[in-house]
TrEMBL record:
GO terms for biological process: CAAX-box protein maturation. It comes from Gracilibacillus halotolerans. Keywords: Membrane, Transmembrane, Transmembrane helix. This is CAAX prenyl protease 2/Lysostaphin resistance protein A-like domain-containing protein. It comes from the Bacteria. The keyword NADP does not apply. GO terms for molecular function: endopeptidase activity. InterPro entries: Rce1/LyrA-like_dom. The keyword Signal does not apply. The chain crosses the membrane at residues 20-39, 55-77, 121-137, 144-161. It holds the Pfam family Rce1-like. Residues 98-178 form the CAAX prenyl protease 2/Lysostaphin resistance protein A-like domain.
Amino acid sequence: MNKQRIIIQEMTSRELKNQVWLTQMIWVIINTVLLIFLVDIAEFIALFDWDLTEIVLYGCLIGLLISIINSWMIQVFPKETWDDGGINEKVFREGSKLEIVLLCLVIAVMEEILFRGIIQSVFGYWIASLLFVVVHFRYLKKPLLLVSIIFLSFGIGYIFIYTSNLLVVIALHFVLDVTLALRIRRKGEWG
């Protein structure tokens, strides 16, 4: 058994969720500092376009499609190929639906502001997409998860290039995370 799994098993669901919330607060600080020093605020604000057609078509529907593909992969491939060390299962198995929705929303907003709104806008598509993969380091030792996060990262980056709309990629990220998180809560595990 690897160290990560042992640490995760020793933590309660609440302790692990607190760590996730702490991570999101760190993202808020990082995003704020980077916004102040790297980004033209007017250009950044212009990335939030309330085009509902775009948000639904390129955000929500693509997020649902990716979620369906992930659910299929979970059914087809053995658990050891897609298990992230028990983190997602432990974070989302317990708690209210509202808590899960809020956590998924905050994660989607913070990560997409950082990776698409700041890093991709300033340093480009490749750097943002690769950094997104690296930040999800717990997937790096699992080939199926690694391929999935690479496709997801570059796909979200491309959709951001295509739409220039942060709300689209936030919606996509949120829909994907919340559907998988609610699946875990409902079934008690990924499968």
